[in-house]
Amino acid sequence: MRYEKNVSRNIAVFGIAGLICILTSSTSMANQAAREYVEDELLVQFKAGVHHEKVMEALSGAEATEDEEISQIRVKKIKVPPAALEKVKAALEKNPHVNFVEHNSLARGGTLPNDPTYASQWHLPKISAPQAWDISTGSVSVDIAIIDSGVDPAHPDLAGKLIPGYNFLLGNTDTHDVLGHGTAVAGTAGAITNNTKGVAGVAWQNQIMPLVVLDATDYASYSNIAQAITYAADHGVRIINVSIGGSSSSSTLQNAVTYAWNKGSLVFVSAMNFNTNIPYYPAACTNAIAVASTTSADAKASFSNYGTWITLSAPGEYIYTTNNGGGYGAWNGTSFSSPMTAGLAALILSVNPMLSNAQVLDILKENADDLGSVGFDTSFGYGRINAYKSLAAAQIAIPQSDTTAPAVSISSPSSGSTIKGLTTVSVSASDNVGVTKVDLFINGALFTADVTSPFSFAWDTTTVSDGTYTLTASAYDEAGNMTQSSSISAKVVNTLDILPPTVAITSPANGAKISNLVTVTVNAFDNVGVSKTELYIDGLLKATSNTGSLSWNWNTKKVASGTHLITSRAFDAAGNVGTTSTSVTK
Fold first, then answer.
1. In CATH, what number does 120-396 get?
2. Is residue 415 among the annotated active site residues?
3. pTM of the model
4. Any bridge partners for residue 195, and if so which?
C-alpha cells in the first residue's frame, strides 16, 4: 500500500518537540492551520452484513473507488475527485448502509518554542526511575510499538532492540526514520541502557516495534494512525505509543483505540503542545491515555495542552534522547511525556505480565505524584508518573482472572415486529473489560460479526423469503467468555400484501335481542398483522383499538326500540380493510 504524502490535508497537530533551536510558536501555529485533511480521500464504515454489491454500488454512485481497508474495524479509505469531496461525503452520510463517513484528517508535528536547558536526563530521577530499576529494568517479552516517523535502525542506543515493524506510508517493512521525531520518541521510551553509550531509556530491556505513519513533511493521516494501532494490537503488542494528534474528532480513531483496548493493549498518546483545552485525537478518545507535560519544578509545561480529557502527566522539557543519524539532543513536548509513560507501563508488565490493561492503568494513576489541586485536575490528570511507586505496586498486584461474561441483548427490531427491505439489527453489548466481538445469528446460522461498538448489522431481507425468523446474538470478551442473547422473532414481509384482514363480531350474535348493558366484542386476523380495529353503531364510530381485539360496553337503556346495525372494520399496514356487520333488536 502506498500513501500520498504531498497533498493538501486536515490538520492534526502532533507533539514533535524540536531539537534545541530557535523556532517561534507563532510559526508553529501558522503551520498548524495549513493542511487539514487528505483532499481526495474519505474514511467510511459500512454496516456489518452489507453485501459487497451494495458497497460497490454506493461507491460507484458517488464516483468513488476503494483504496484500502482497515479490515479489523471495517473502515475503508476511498478515493474521490477533490472537487466533489464534500458532495460525496454528504451523499454517503445519507446512505442507509453506512455507519459513518469522515475526512481522512491529518496529524502533523508541531514545532515547539525552546525552553530553558536542564541537566541531561533530569526527568529520570524526577520520576524515581533509578529506584524503579532496582525492581526491574524491563523484559524482552513486553514490546513497545512506536507509531511515528520511523526509528534509525543504526543508532547505537536503539539498533540492538528493534523488532520488525511496518511502513504505512510506503506499504513495506522499511522503517527508517523519515523525519527524526520517531527516533527521539523511541529513545525516550527505551534506549539501550547501561551500555556506556549515549542516554538511558525508561525501559532498558523492552524491544521496540517501529510503525511509520508520519511523513517527511510532518503529517500523518488518520487512516494510517488507525492502521498502525490495529496492526500493533493484532501483533500482540500491549504497549502502544502515539506521539501524534489532530484537532478533528474521529470515529475511525476511536474504533481503532477501542479495538486495541479490547485486545488488552494500552494506547499512550501525547496531549499536544498548544496550551489549550481543546481536545486532540487520538488522545481524547475513550480508553486512550492522554499524557500532558510537566517541568523540572513539577509545574505544567507552558506549551502543554490540558483539559478534562488528560489522564496523566510526565516530564516534557529538555528531554535528552536519541537523534536520527546516531547522535543525541534535547527535545521538548508532550511527544516525550507520552513515551516516558509508555516505557513505565512496559516496566509494570515486565514485573507482572498477567495484569490486565485496566490494572496497569490503575497502577499508573493510583501511584502518580499528585500535583496541582488535590486529586484529578485538568493540568496533570491523575498526577505526574512515579516509576518506583508504580513498580512497587505492580509487584504485589494480583492479576484479575476475567470470568465475567459480557451482557448482550438485541435492542432492535423488537420481538414480534414486522420488517421489510433493509433492516438495521442493533445489539447492545457490554463487559467489565471490553467486548471484542458480537456475532449475529439468523435462524441459527451465523449471519456476520461486528468488532466495533455500537454493534449494528445491516440485514437485507429482500434476499430471504417472507416468513418468521429467529435472531440471536453472541458477545465475546478478550478472555474468551461468551454470552448469547435471548432470541427475538421478526416477520419478514416484502411481497405486496393484498389480503384484507378478516373480522368477526363475536358478541352479541346476529339477530340477538338486547337490553340494558351489552358487551360488544370484535376479533380480527390478518396474514401480516392488524394495525387498527374500529366499531360503529348505526354508522357512528364508538370505539377503536390498535390491535385485532376490541371490547366495548354499550348502554342500550336510552337506545330507541327497533333494529340496530353493528359494524366493525379492521385495517392492516398495507391499507387493506376488512368489514363485517351484524343486526340486533331492542
1. 3.40.50.200
2. no
3. 0.74
4. none
